[in-house]
Write a structure and sequence with these properties.
alpha/beta; Rossmann fold; Arc Repressor Mutant, subunit A; 2 domains; 5-stranded parallel beta sheet
């Protein structure tokens, strides 16, 4: 029997995933978590074989949460199940330690197949993501936003969404000065000068929701 932890802050999503998994003979949901702190505790204690992890939960950055889950239970694979398109976070999620990436529009049969593959020791990625990972390893064709660190990318997306420096600082619990430093690095790495340029780039490349 495959034991699954569902980590998602939306009750409807958790219920929907549980119903899908309860309909299978070899998969059982043993725990649920609704924020980052609860997720880490459950990963360490619930005895699950795989974690279904949403990237956008209260209490922490999704990519950092992947790393922390891997730290406390390095043998438990993580399948990201998120609203974010592959373009936005898939490569970064696998770099952080996830073993698979699915969007919430995925068919139930694909979700079940992904869980089984991860528990068997494999990875579950789309052909598009496999190609991007190959490019990433080769260092070829890297887009401007892929030069950013995970924190810079987080700030970049918030800037592109129209948030001010003060709003970003408050949301990330960082100083305005620190966000100003990130802004400067983002403009330099992406070779852009204004927020309008960043926003247009983000929309064009489907990097904002």
């Amino acid at each position: 029997m495959i034991h699954v932890l569902i980590a998602d802050d939306h009750p409807v999503v958790r219920k929907g995933i549980r119903q899908i998994l309860d309909a299978t003979k070899d998969i059982r949901v043993v725990a649920e978590a609704t924020d980052a702190e609860e997720t880490i505790i459950e990963v360490a204690t619930c005895g699950c074989h795989v974690v279904l992890l949403d990237l956008s939960m209260p209490g922490g950055d999704g990519l950092e949460l992947i790393r922390e889950c891997r730290r406390v239970s390095p043998d438990v694979p993580i399948l990201v199940v998120t609203m974010h398109a592959e373009d936005q976070f898939a490569v970064r999620s696998l770099r952080a330690g996830a073993a698979g990436y699915l969007t919430k529009e995925t068919a139930p049969s694909e979700l079940i197949a992904a869980i089984r593959k991860l528990v068997a020791g494999g990875r579950y990625i789309s052909p598009w993501l496999a190609e991007r990972l190959a490019e990433d390893v080769a260092g070829a064709g890297r887009a401007p936003h892929e030069r950013l660190s995970d924190r810079e990318y987080q700030v970049f997306r918030m800037m592109a969404s129209g948030k001010s420096t003060r709003e970003i600082a408050a949301e990330l619990s960082l100083s305005v000065k620190t966000i100003g430093t990130y802004r400067a690095r983002i403009f330099e790495k992406m070779e852009m000068r204004t927020n309008a340029h960043l926003a247009a780039y983000a929309v064009r490349n489907r990097l904002v929701d």
